[in-house]
Amino acid sequence: MDPPEQRRKRKRFVRPPYSPKHLLSVRSLTSSFFFLTFLYFLSFRFFPINSSTFHPILVVSSLSLLSSSSSRSVQNHFNGDDLLSSLRIEDRVLFPDHVLLLVSSTKRNIKNSEGMECVYGRNLFKRYDSSDGVAAVKHSVLSVDEYDGFRFIARCPVPPANHSAAVNLQRRGGSVAELGGDYGLLKSNQTVYSWENVAYAAVLDGKTVVVFVKGLNLRQERKSDPTQYSCHFGLRNWERDGGFALATRAITAAQEVVRCSLPRSMRKNPIKAEGIRVTIGVTVTPHVHARAHEQVLVPSVAKIWKHKPEKQRNRKGKYELCVCTMVWNQASSLREWIMYHAWLGVERWFIYDNNSDDGIKDVIEELELEDYNVTRHLWPWIKTQEAGFSHCALRARDECNWVSFMDVDEFFYFPFPTPRLQRKRKLGFPGQNSLRNLVANFSSSTRVAEIRTGCHSFAPSGLNSPPSQGVTVGYTCRLQSPERHKSIVRPDALDITLLNVVHHFHLSKGFKYLNLPHSIAVINHYKYQVWEVFRAKFFRRVATYVVDWQESQNEGSRDRAPGLGTEAIEPPNWRLQFCEIWDTGLRDFVLANLADPESGSLPWERSPL
């Protein structure tokens, strides 16, 4: 028998491998797992959801869209295809007319959609019946494009009836059977976010982050109370760990833009915030069973990004005058608009492309080859023009002293001065670089930060087809009274909210705007063009707070055509409408200054093949 002292030592160092408390914890977890599994199968057995129409899967989840196992499944489907095996679908957003996929890739040479197809599996909320004939289907990818420094975008058509919006990609020509009889890939967590409620973009701005978010429904042209909002920052390894680890309070909130401070751990080195997912928290009114000050997080596909300024072309310092615009299928209008305003002195263009499919990318590349300083920025978020302009203002601030926010059917024009006005005019005479010279006169001003110019709306001018020499020469009749105004602003003097409506911004305290007299400058707005061009407006409009033409709201608004209904049907005598006064001033100006002396052709006219 061992001495008592040795037995005490053994008791001191020997412990039972499991305590009763530990066993209870394991039993509890096991019981919970089997109970939840039972409820899952019970719901499908007794409460199946049937529908003959498509219902998207809208799941708010803090998990990654594709788990690591599903990512491996994607790579297995693309075995033998070196490019597609590197893809990983991070997020999906359901729009009214397509599904947007945000895809990361280990390769940065994704140039087009020729190698990919969209694959749709059965709707996961519809109980499977082998007799219903519902199987996976394929459609061509609508477009593929680079988006930010982390991801590119693929756009797929909306899913067919009884198929899931959790669309996947496969190599073109691959067999649907590759997905397997049970479509195992679609059984993984396949979150699809609704475009009506999602944080969609985020920009690093000093020691703050500016988040663009849909679904807050804040009032137009109003600053909102920021105290009910907060920013929540994900972990660096979001897809693996999930969840939001850090939070800060909102500084400002207006329309679709919320600004927050960076977390303290990122402020000393803000660049570390790049690539981190961020979303907005909304404080909701507590109800009987809710905790006080409960916050609901908006679903998010937004990752913090800081755009790097373009290298200045043959100059030091900032460009004096830049232009920002948002377009949808305006490729045919770009050459005239850019070449004309380049002659007036614009040095830099930011083109925000809102899902164009008319070859605009090729047009911009051609202009760049001709030494026009144009960059295209993919902006896939529909009806967000005001937010896009706020985004562009942040982007242009490091490159430009002044930025004009205008559309591609709007042209600055300096009327020929009368002898009386010539004596009084102090801003220079119209000519080459006249617009740049005008704004440069105010660059040294400590207070003027916005230059407003009135607009004249031009009519179809009796034409039945687009004018061959461009809008500036072809349309010569307009409404008599001017409508609204457009602005050129100093991006470093904008209000911290970045609040803007109808192309003009709110300014920081201490700054003011200047209205240019119509005798000095106007904007010719070629709003009512030939019906062939005008009817494209019925598809969609880019502004957030402007009703689409198909909707029967605000039919008397100046944003619509007077007397025009909600259908794209050409009214009688469209070519003769809106013509109250003939105005050939800009036509004469263009032909006198920009036409070739020998041929009479204009710079934007294509040479015959």
TrEMBL record:
Membrane topology: Single-pass membrane protein
GO cellular component terms, A-Z: membrane
MF terms in GO: glycosyltransferase activity
Keyword Ribosomal protein in annotation: no
Alphabetically ordered keywords of this record: Glycosyltransferase, Membrane, Transferase, Transmembrane, Transmembrane helix
Compartments, as annotated in UniProt: Membrane
InterPro entries per record: Glyco_transf_92, Nucleotide-diphossugar_trans
Top EC class of this enzyme: transferase
UniProt keyword annotation of Cell inner membrane present: no
Listed EC numbers: 2.4.1.-
Entry's transmembrane regions: 21-42
Major localisation: membrane
Coiled-coil annotated spans: none
Record-stated family: Belongs to the glycosyltransferase 92 family.
Protein name as it appears in the record: Glycosyltransferase family 92 protein
